[in-house]
Inverse folding.
C-alpha cells in the first residue's frame, strides 16, 4: 500500500499541472486608461486611477445611497466621513460634482 506522499508523487509524475506565470508587482509596463478627472492617460495601477474609480462608483449611486456611504447610517454602517474624517468626505463630494460636470451631456 502506498503512503500519502508516495501516492502524491506517483500522481505528480503522471499529471503535468500548468501554473500561469506570476505577474510582477507592479507590471513593468502597466496598462494606461484615460482619466476624466486628470484629463490625461494614467496608469491603472496609480492612485489617480484608484481615486477616479472611487468617484465613478459614488457618482453612479442614487443620492440617498451616496449620502449613506459618505455620512453613514444612524443605526448601522459607518460612512466614509467617520473613517476618513469630514474633510475627506467633503473632498469626495466636490470631486463627485466635478466628475458630473465633466461628464454632463450638453
Amino acid at each position: 500500500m502506498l503512503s500519502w506522499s508516495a501516492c502524491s508523487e506517483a500522481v505528480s509524475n503522471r499529471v503535468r499541472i500548468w501554473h500561469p506565470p506570476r505577474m510582477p508587482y507592479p507590471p513593468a509596463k502597466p496598462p494606461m486608461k484615460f482619466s476624466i478627472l486628470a484629463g490625461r492617460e494614467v496608469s491603472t495601477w496609480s492612485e489617480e486611477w484608484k481615486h477616479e474609480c472611487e468617484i465613478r462608483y459614488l457618482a453612479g449611486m442614487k443620492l440617498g445611497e451616496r449620502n449613506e456611504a459618505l455620512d453613514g447610517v444612524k443605526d448601522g454602517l459607518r460612512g466614509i466621513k467617520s473613517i476618513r474624517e469630514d474633510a475627506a468626505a467633503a473632498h469626495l463630494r466636490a470631486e463627485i460634482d466635478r466628475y458630473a460636470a465633466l461628464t454632463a451631456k450638453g
